[in-house]
Amino acid sequence: MFHRFLPSHDSIKSHRLLRWLGPRLHDPSLWRINRHTVAKAVAIGAFFGLMIPVAQIPAAVIVSLSLRANLWIASVSTLISNPFTYAPLYYFAYHLGAGVLGIPPRPDDATPPVYESVGAWLAHAWEWLSGIGQPLLLGMLLMAMVGAIAGYCLTQALWRWRVLSKRRRSLRARIAI
User: Fold this and answer.
1) Residue 171 resides in a domain
2) Nearest C-alpha neighbor of 45 from the set 68, 24, 63
3) I want to staple 73 with a disulfide (CB 3.0 to 4.6 A). Which of 20, 31, 41, 83 is the partner?
4) What does the alpha-carbon distance between residue 79 and residue 72 come to, in Å, rounded to a whole number?
5) 19-28, 141-150, 161-170: which has the minimum mean pLDDT?
């Protein structure tokens, strides 16, 4: 099913930006589509997709190389966070982190403040970041861990269900004959 969307092994191995990885890219488990490599890849992609806002795909690829998970699926599954989902994810992460820490969420002022200088703006930005930083990071970490575990377990369960349903249909077809 996924094979038609995947680039060929040769095109990836011969790509000029990836040649430095050399024989590591020849590991067949990085390209194999089975229950274990896909589940690991989904977990890695979900973790980095929910945890860090930049360089998600390179981080997922590096971890996939070391854990021998499917590179393509790990890269694609990081797209759980994208420009359309950043705001709701970070909003939920902040409120989750604030709830765990027992910090009441800060109400936002309706009118933006006026600054006399760039220094005043930087001081306010630093104060604002330090206020939301700890709850936001904790919420992102919790969401990333839960997302990775849920992605792994859900992939394993769905894969197993699909295999069993195929076997049942095959068995029914043989019995009906």
Assistant:
1) yes
2) 63
3) 41
4) 12
5) 19-28
For residue 4, being part of any structural domain is answered with: no
Sequence-distant (≥ 6) Cβ neighbours of residue 2 within 8 angstroms? 33, 72, 73
Is residue 7 classed as helix, strand or coil in its secondary structure? Answer: coil
**What token pair was written down for 15?**
């790509």
Amino acid residing at 172: R
Instruction: Convert the pLDDT of each residue in 103-127 to its tens digit.
Output: 887 665 545 567 778 888 888 777 7
Give dist(CA 37, CA 97) in Å, integer.
31
Integer angstrom CA distances of residue 94 from 102, 108, 137, 143, 177: 12, 13, 8, 10, 59
How many domains does one find in the chain? 1
Residue 3 lies in a domain: no
DSSP code of 113?
A: P
Cα–Cα dist 40/45, whole Å: 9
Percent of the chain with pLDDT over 90: 31
